[in-house]
């Protein structure tokens, strides 16, 4: 006999439990659990498979190879373009440019002679046409439909047989016969399930736009991210022009890659070399230091700025922009305790240039030098950059891919670099005057012209050549 049980489901994230609790165990929302339909537990009988299992060596792999979208930065994040049958979810804050980006992808896809269907459930067809006129995203193979009913959307797919479907957005499409309103847990799950089944059956690539919550997470149940093949995050400040596409899940490529874009009046433009956007053109000044952050596998040269001013408040201010507040607080504590810089009576403001967000620990050393420079009102010597993680003991710790970071700095014309001690072969061919330091105190001395660390790179080779020449010279 089948045994029935009652489940309670969270209306915010879809988490289920066998008994009622006041707080969701996954999203931590209070009072969000509601009683679902009773479920029965019974044995499932085995069935004869429609197709027998075959050897993995006999599977045709060409059908799973990516197709280029025509936007190099997006192809970089996806791995090698869009795989036929893949379902890609793109999330981002309102106004960041999600619809503009995917409309450009649809136009590029259609310009290659591939039929494309763009379904909008948030705007009218005329509104999308106006955006397409402004960005130049017009093509005869690009079909447009303004529908919010899942059945009608599937009917459009059957009628036009597109190779690419763009849906804007999954939270505004409703499946008839499913409980809940559009955007609810049950509706989002059913719509996504139907699109995934259709994509796999028709070998059609699908791009879905998803809303985000106030915390920046994708709205809807957590299972939404598990259902799709690729999850992309579109980041950037609404009032700034720079945008980044970051992969958080990718079944067909790397999940740590980023693509860079710039929002302009005529649409979105890819930025294959974004390092120059995050440094000021004035050169080194007091309170600034440059570092090289690693976004995915791409090195980005960014500038950290600091301002230190006296305060009469009992609790001094610590304000940051583009930097993690916790890492800034830790770095200031290390500067005061390990380097003797008195910051407990001063307000400290730290920021990045160009709106870039630095979460890489390799930016700790540049932040420390920028704060010390602002406190001393003295600029670092030469065209300097600093790369390294600062520990609570004041030690400068090594960071990954240092050789790649230094190569990017050398390409942009930097002359001196302060790096952690023991970097070894990674700095041998950097083409820079590299100074290895073991502590924050040594790093500050090297930054302001009194180096006590180990000098390697070009300077070491110059000293060796100079010593050889002196020994060969006649007395």
From TrEMBL:
Cellular component aspect of the GO annotation: cytosol
Keyword Coiled coil attached: no
CDD domains, alphabetized: RadA_SMS_N (cd01121)
The RecA family profile domain, residue ranges: 63-212
Alphabetic keyword roster: ATP-binding, DNA damage, DNA repair, DNA-binding, Hydrolase, Metal-binding, Nucleotide-binding, Stress response, Zinc, Zinc-finger
Lon-protease-like: annotated segments: 347-475
Gene3D superfamilies recorded: 3.30.230.10, P-loop containing nucleotide triphosphate hydrolases
SUPFAM superfamilies: P-loop containing nucleoside triphosphate hydrolases, Ribosomal protein S5 domain 2-like
GO BP: recombinational repair
UniProt: ATP binding residues: 92-99
GO molecular function, one term: damaged DNA binding
Motif position, RadA KNRFG motif: 249-253
Homology family: Belongs to the RecA family. RadA subfamily.
Function in brief: DNA-dependent ATPase involved in processing of recombination intermediates, plays a role in repairing DNA breaks. Stimulates the branch migration of RecA-mediated strand transfer reactions, allowing the 3' invading strand to extend heteroduplex DNA faster. Binds ssDNA in the presence of ADP but not other nucleotides, has ATPase activity that is stimulated by ssDNA and various branched DNA structures, but inhibited by SSB. Does not have RecA's homology-searching function.
UniProt comment concerning the protein's domains: The middle region has homology to RecA with ATPase motifs including the RadA KNRFG motif, while the C-terminus is homologous to Lon protease.
Protein name per the record: DNA repair protein RadA
Species annotation: Propioniciclava sinopodophylli
Lineage of source species: Bacteria, Bacillati, Actinomycetota, Actinomycetes, Propionibacteriales
Gene that produces this protein: radA
